[in-house]
Every structure is written in structure tokens, then in C-alpha cells.
Write a structure and sequence with these properties.
Blueprint (H helix, E strand, L loop, with lengths): L2 E3 L17 H19 L6 E2 L19 H7 L7 E3 L6 E3 L1 H15 L4 E8 L8 E7 L6 E7 L5 E8 L21 H13 L7 E9 L9 E8 L4 E8 L4 E2 L4
Antiparallel strand pairs: 1-11, 2-12, 3-4, 5-6, 5-9, 6-7, 7-8, 9-10, 10-11
């Protein structure tokens, strides 16, 4: 499995901070987003299947687990996610696949053929719930990227288009459409957390995050990358999971 510290472009260790959501903390979150994408992009294929528990909680069921190959061929759509009710009977929160379905509907108002290429979730909980930023294009030779922010209750909170020279920051020769039959965020968190717990005391970590992307080195994937900030060394550490099979990738 892949367990690694995360380094910046200059080779220095990435460090985090603590505190509330101030303006500076939003800037830090944006920086972490780029770290997560760089980290998720650096490894190639390979790995043994690691069977770990996915987070479960009583609540309203929106869908089932990952579909079979036959189901995928017949449905050819994003598998349903899970809606989780808070203990107080509040509104449902949704795992990633349901969030993706809703964000895609918004993206296709922008361009009818829009499809997902990357997703980033900050401060993800053990049930795979968080606020997400999803990135969409509508063709291989993309001339624009749409960023869709969606909260954990399935509400799109912001969209913005990146065009012109800005596109190169989001699209490269290995950029591909994320396939529908991925494991959901709750299972990805369970696998990633178990992998990191084997080497790091979780009570000394914070700022859990989750990224879905293809490798920018060789185009392999897609991968979920689960990342934590490790207090003892003030560095980010991460585990990489095959988003289709749940295999945890070993070191190269």
C-alpha cells in the first residue's frame, strides 16, 4: 500500500495549521487542494487488494454498493450513493456518488456533454461526507473547465468557469473521464484510514481529505487519495486506493 509524506514542488515538507475557517484558512485549504492533486497524481498502477470496512451509519438508503460489470453495462450511469440522516433527524447528507449525480446535472446546464475529471473533498468525515469541488470538461481538447462546489447536503453552492490559459492548470495529456463504477467515498475513507492507521496514530492526525483523479505521471487510475495531517512531524501523509477495485497501491 502507498503510505507517504507529501512534499512541495521545491522538495520541502508540506506543513499544515489549525484554527477556524478564517480567510487565511480558506487560502490554506486551496493550497491543500493542490497538494492533494499533486499527491494523487504521482504514483502508477499496481497493488494487492486490501479488504477494509466502509463507514456505516443508520439513515435513509439512497443506493447500494458498487455495481457489477453487468449492471454497469446496462445502466451506464453513476451508481446511487447513500443518504445519511443526522441523529437529530436533520436533512440527509450524501456520499460522493450522489453528490456527483447532482453536480453533473448542474454542469450539464453549462455544456450538455460535461463529464467529471477530478474531485476534491476537504475535511471528510468517517462516513465519507464533506463539501466537494468537482471539475468538469466536455471534450478531450478542452477549451474550458467548470468547477462545481456542492455541500454535503447535495446543494450546489457555487460554479465557476476557467477558460483560456487557466485550462492548462486542470487538464493535461493524461486527463480522462472518471468512470461511473467507482467505489463510493465512505468505502474509500475506510480503506484509507485503515491503511494510515497501520503506521500513524490517528489521534495525532487531523484535516482528513479525499481526492479522486488519474495519475498525471502515467494516466493510470482512477485513484482515491486519502490524506491526513500528522501532528508529530507537521506533514501530510496519504494512502492511495484504486477507485475501481479498492486495491491499495504499494510503494513504487
Amino acid at each position: 500500500m502507498t503510505l507517504r509524506k507529501v512534499f512541495g514542488l521545491d522538495g520541502s515538507s508540506m506543513r499544515g495549521d489549525s484554527g477556524h475557517w478564517t480567510r487565511g484558512r480558506w487560502v490554506g485549504a486551496l493550497a491543500l487542494t493542490f497538494v492533494m492533486l499533486a499527491s494523487s497524481a504521482c504514483l502508477g498502477p499496481g497493488g494487492l487488494v486490501s479488504h477494509g470496512p466502509s463507514a456505516t451509519k443508520s439513515g435513509a438508503l439512497v443506493g447500494t454498493g458498487a455495481p457489477s460489470a453487468t449492471d454497469q453495462a446496462l445502466n451506464d450511469d453513476i451508481p446511487l450513493g447513500t443518504g445519511i440522516a443526522d441523529g437529530g433527524g436533520g436533512p440527509l447528507s450524501y456520499t460522493f456518488r450522489e453528490e456527483w449525480r447532482r453536480a453533473r446535472a448542474e454542469a450539464q446546464k453549462w455544456r450538455g456533454g460535461a463529464y467529471l475529471i477530478t474531485a476534491v473533498g476537504l475535511y471528510v468525515n468517517d462516513d465519507g461526507l464533506c463539501e466537494w469541488t468537482l471539475r468538469f470538461i466536455d471534450k478531450v481538447d478542452a477549451d474550458a473547465v467548470l468547477l462545481v462546489d456542492i455541500d454535503m447536503w447535495g446543494k450546489v453552492t457555487r460554479t465557476r468557469e476557467i477558460a483560456g490559459d487557466g485550462v492548462i492548470s486542470f487538464v493535461n495529456k493524461y486527463t480522462k473521464r472518471i468512470p461511473y463504477a467507482i467505489i463510493d467515498s465512505d468505502k474509500a475513507v475506510g480503506l484509507g484510514k485503515a491503511a494510515l492507521a497501520s503506521q500513524y496514530p490517528l489521534d495525532k492526525t487531523k484535516e482528513p481529505s479525499l481526492t479522486l483523479d488519474f495519475s498525471r505521471v502515467d494516466g493510470s487510475g482512477p485513484y482515491w487519495t486519502y490524506m491526513l495531517f500528522y501532528n508529530s512531524t507537521a506533514e501530510y501523509v496519504s494512502a492511495q486506493i484504486d477507485a475501481l477495485t479498492g486495491a491499495v497501491t504499494p510503494p513504487n
